[in-house]
Q: What sequence folds into this?
C-alpha cells in the first residue's frame, strides 16, 4: 500500500504492530483514548530504597520479552542505560524491548547486547549517529526499530501503543520515596521532561540516583506516588556529555548568509512581532537565526510569549533580557540552560505530551509561530529526511522535527544546498520524517524555496527582496554544481519503521547493501 | 451485612453503586488500575475561548444525567458552582450529579435546584454546616449523597468509580488556551490541587476565570493540554470567603490545656525530632498545638521535613523560620498562605492523589508523623465521627480526616469532653468517618485516652506525667457531668453513603426523624 506521501509500505512488518499508513498530518485527530494504568499500592511504612539495580530488576519482576524505558537528558553523558542494561544482561534476561527517548554514541555497549539477543527491539525519538544507529542499520536487531517523534512517544505511551513494563528514570536528585528532579545535584541535566509519561504509565517505575537527599526533595518534577523503587548508584553519568555538538553561533559565512536570509524571511512574513513564539535547535545556523531575531526584537522593543523546545543559552539570555515571557523546556542543550532551569521561575518544564502529543487538547507546538529546522535531505514536495543519510545509514530520529512542523505557523528548513558531492534536494528523500504538507519554506545559500501550498506566505514576502526560487530550480542548480544524485542502494530488509507523531507509518528504513552482513 | 467497624449495611442502596463493605484500613491495597481517559484532540488553530458559561454548556454537550465537577478552594467565597449550576438549570437540564470537592453555606442556591430535580445526586469531601447539608439530611436528593475523603475523591476519579462528564475549574488566573493557576489574580485562592484529578480524568474540562492573561500564564498549575474550553466571567467569587471560621490560636483556657497536653503527648512519644512531619487543621486548638510545637522546635534547633494539608499562616511562619524544609499544600486556609504559595519555592502544590489516595505507590500521608484532628463524636473503640452531629444532621465530611489517620504514625483526636449537655464519647458514634484502628489517642480537658492497640505508645509515654485515662472512664466521667446520652432518633431513609478512602462503605447516614418531611 502507498501512504499519503507516496511511500510504498508492506502490508505487514514482522515484529511491528499492524500498519496504519500515514494519511495526512491532521487526519487522526478527534476522539482519542488514553489507556488505563496499573499500579501497586503501598501500605504506610513501605520502604522504596533498594540496594542495587540488581535488586530493582528482581523486585520489579523484570523478565524476558519485557519493555524497559529510559530518558535521555544526560545525552552523550548518560550512564543509566548502560548500567541497567548490563545488569539485565548479567541476569541472563533476553528479548528486551529498549524504549529509550534517546540514544547516543555513549551507548556503544548496547551493540553487544543487541548481538547477543538481550535487546531485540529499540524504540527511540532522539538518535545520534554512532555505533547503535549503525548496528540497527546493519539489521542486527531481531525486530525493526521504531523511530518516533518527541510528541509521538508520549502519544504512544498514553494510548497504550507503547506499553512500558519497567521505567528506569535517571534522577540527578531524589529522596528515598522517589520525589525527584533533574535540576540539582552533581549530575544535574535539566528537567527530565521526557520521563514524565514513563512515570505515569509504566507498570513499575524505578528512580536511579547519584544524589539521594533528605525527604522531601524540592523542587519535585516527578512525584513519589508514581515511583515504586529508588536505587542509589555512584554515578548516573557525566553532565559534560550533554553538550555533544557545537552549540555556538556559526562563523561559517555561507551559513551566516542562510541565517540572515532566514531571519529576513521570518520578519518579512510578519512573524517578528509582539507575543511571538519561536523554536530553534542548537545548530550553529539555527543559533545564528536566533541571534538576529533577538537583535530585531530588542531594537523594536518586542516581547515574545515563549521560546520552546530544547533550551540553550541563547534562549536563556532572551528570557533574562525580557524578550520572552517564558521558556517551555523539554530538555536542556547546555549547562547554562540547566542553571537557568534552577534559577528562572518562568523557565518552565513541560512534558513531552504537553509539548507535542497530537492527541490531546492542544499541545504547545500548536501555539508556536516559527520553528527553524534542519534536514539531511528535502524533496521537491518539501518532504524532509532527518533520519538517514543518503546512503541509507541511520543517523537520527525525528525528535521534535515533525511535531513542530505540524504545529507551527511557519516551519522553515535551513540547510546548505550542497556539501562536497552531495545535494540536499532530491526527487525523493531516502526516508520521509516530516511530510511536505507541514513544511513552509526551505532556505539555502542559493535561495529560498517557499512551499507552493503557502500562497499566503509567497504573497506576504514577494516584495521583500528575498532570493526566492522554485525548489525544482534549487535541485537543478545543486546537481549542476555537484553532479546528479543517485539513490541509496538498499536491500529489502526493513530495519526500522518511521512512525509519524500520530502513530501512522510514514516510512520504513531498509538496510543498505553496503551495510548488509 | 456488617462491616469491619460493626456497622449494619443494607445489601444495596438505591442510586448508589454496589456496596463493598469496609474491611479494614489497608485491606484493599495491592494491584489497582487507573482508568482510561477520553480526550478530544485539537488541530492547530483551534480556539478555546468561549463567550459564556452557556456556550460552554452547549459545546461540552452537557445534558440530563451527567456528572459535573468543581473544586472548593474559594470555599465560602466560591461563585463558580452557583453560576454554572444556575446556567445548567436555566437550560432545563435535569438529573445532574454534582461532584464538588467541597460545598459551603454560600451554595445555598443549590437547595432550590435539588428541590427542582436539577441536582439529584451530590458527591463531596468537604462540607460545611449549612443549607445544602441540611437539605441533604432532610432527604431532598433523589439519590443518596456520597461523602468521601480528600484521598478517596481522586481515588474514585482515577479508578473510574467517579466518572466526570464535565469539569468546571474556577481559575484565578488563566490564559486563552487553559494554562491556569490559583495563586495570582484578584480571586487568588491558593493552589487548586483538588481540581487536578478532574482536569486529568473528566471527558471535557472548562476553565472559568476572572483574570484572563496573555499566553502563557505563568506559573502553570493545570496545563493547556488538559483543558477543552476557557470562559471569562466577571467574578469567580470572593477570596475573603476562604477564611470561614476562626483561624487563630484559641484563647479559651480549657482548649489551651488540651493543646498543651497534646503537645506534651507528641513530645513524650518522641515525635518532636529532626525531620519530623506534621499536619494540623486550622481550628483554634490545633493551631495552639502547632504554636507549642513550634516553640519546642526552635528551642531545640529542630528542622522538620514538612508541614502538610490545608496550609495556614502558622505553617507559613514555620517554613519561613526554617522549621520545615517544605510545605505540601492541598488548599490554603487563609490569605497569608495564598501569598506564601506565590512567594515560597518550597511551599509546594500537591494533588489530592499525591496527598492521600491510598491506591498509589505511597501518598504523602504515608510519610506523615503526627496529625491533630477533631471530632464531633468518638466511641469507645476510637471510631470517630466528623460527618453528623449527634442529632443526625450532616455538618461535615471527612476531608483529610480518615486519610491522615490511616497514613500517619500518630493520629491524635482533640476535643472538649463535654459541651453544654453533650458528651463527645459515645458507645457508638452516630456516623463512623474514621475507623478506630487508625486513631491513636484522644486528648480532652479531662485526660488523654490512648488506643489500647498502641501498647508501644502507652509504653513510650507512661512516665511522662500525662493524665492518661481509659476511654470508658472518660465516657463515664462525661456522662456524670452532663447526663446519659441518647442516640439520634433516625428514620430508615438513607440520605448519604459514607465511603472510606478506598471506596468501601464505612457507614450510611439516615434521615433523622426531626428532619423528616
A:
Amino acid at each position: 500500500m502507498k501512504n499519503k506521501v507516496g511511500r510504498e509500505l508492506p502490508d505487514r512488518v514482522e515484529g511491528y504492530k499492524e500498519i496504519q499508513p500515514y494519511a495526512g498530518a491532521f487526519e487522526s485527530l478527534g476522539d482519542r483514548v488514553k489507556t488505563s494504568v496499573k499500579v501497586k499500592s503501598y501500605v504506610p511504612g513501605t520502604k522504596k530504597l533498594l540496594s542495587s539495580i540488581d535488586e530493582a530488576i528482581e523486585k520489579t519482576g523484570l523478565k524476558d520479552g519485557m519493555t524497559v524505558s529510559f530518558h535521555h537528558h544526560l545525552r552523550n553523558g548518560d550512564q543509566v542505560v548502560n548500567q541497567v542494561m548490563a545488569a539485565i544482561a548479567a541476569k541472563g534476561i533476553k528479548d528486551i524491548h529498549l524504549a529509550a527517548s534517546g540514544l547516543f554514541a555513549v551507548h556503544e555497549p548496547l551493540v553487544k547486547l543487541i548481538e547477543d539477543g538481550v535487546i531485540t527491539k529499540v524504540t527511540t525519538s532522539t538518535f545520534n549517529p554512532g555505533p547503535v544507529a549503525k548496528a540497527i542499520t546493519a539489521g542486527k536487531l531481531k525486530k525493526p526499530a521504531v523511530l518516533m517523534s518527541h510528541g509521538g512517544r508520549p502519544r504512544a505511551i498514553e494510548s497504550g501503543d507503547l506499553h512500558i513494563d519497567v521505567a528506569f528514570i535517571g534522577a540527578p536528585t531524589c529522596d528515598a520515596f522517589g520525589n525527584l528532579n533533574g535540576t540539582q545535584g552533581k549530575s544535574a541535566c535539566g528537567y527530565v521532561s521526557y520521563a514524565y509519561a514513563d512515570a505515569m504509565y509504566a507498570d513499575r517505575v524505578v528512580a536511579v540516583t547519584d544524589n539521594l537527599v533528605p525527604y522531601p526533595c524540592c523542587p519535585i518534577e516527578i512525584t513519589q506516588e508514581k515511583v515504586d523503587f529508588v536505587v542509589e548508584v555512584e554515578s548516573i553519568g557525566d553532565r559534560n556529555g550533554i553538550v555533544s555538538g557545537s552549540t555556538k553561533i556559526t562563523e561559517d559565512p555561507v551559513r551566516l548568509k542562510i541565517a540572515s536570509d532566514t531571519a529576513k524571511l521570518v520578519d518579512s512574513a510578519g512573524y517578528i512581532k509582539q507575543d511571538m513564539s519561536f523554536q530553534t535547535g542548537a545548530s550553529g545556523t539555527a543559533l545564528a537565526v536566533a541571534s538576529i531575531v533577538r537583535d530585531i526584537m530588542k531594537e523594536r522593543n518586542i516581547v515574545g510569549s515563549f521560546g520552546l523546545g530544547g533550551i540553550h543559552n541563547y534562549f536563556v539570555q532572551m528570557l533574562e533580557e525580557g524578550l520572552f515571557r517564558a521558556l517551555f523546556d523539554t530538555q536542556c542543550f547546555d549547562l547554562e540552560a540547566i542553571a537557568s532551569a534552577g534559577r528562572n521561575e518562568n523557565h518552565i518544564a513541560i512534558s513531552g505530551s504537553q509539548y507535542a502529543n497530537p492527541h490531546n487538547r492542544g499541545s504547545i507546538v500548536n501555539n508556536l509561530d516559527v520553528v527553524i529546522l534542519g534536514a539531511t535531505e528535502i524533496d521537491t514536495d518539501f518532504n524532509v529526511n532527518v533520519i538517514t543519510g543518503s546512503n541509507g545509514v541511520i543517523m537520527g530520529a525525528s525528535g521534535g522535527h515533525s511535531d513542530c512542523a505540524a504545529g507551527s505557523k511557519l516551519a522553515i528548513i535551513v540547510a546548505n544546498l550542497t556539501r562536497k558531492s552531495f545535494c540536499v534536494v532530491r526527487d525523493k528523500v531516502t526516508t520521509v520524517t516530516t511530510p511536505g504538507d507541514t513544511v513552509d519554506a526551505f532556505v539555502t545559500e542559493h535561495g529560498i524555496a517557499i512551499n507552493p501550498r503557502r500562497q499566503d506566505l509567497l504573497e506576504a514576502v514577494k516584495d521583500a527582496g528575498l532570493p526566492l526560487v522554485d525548489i525544482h530550480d534549487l535541485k537543478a542548480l545543486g546537481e549542476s554544481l555537484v553532479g546528479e544524485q543517485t539513490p541509496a542502494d538498499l536491500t529489502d530488509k526493513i530495519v526500522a519503521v518511521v512512525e509519524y507523531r500520530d502513530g501512522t507509518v510514514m516510512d520504513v528504513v531498509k538496510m543498505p547493501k553496503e551495510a548488509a552482513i
User: Anything to note?
Assistant: The mean pLDDT of chain A is 96.
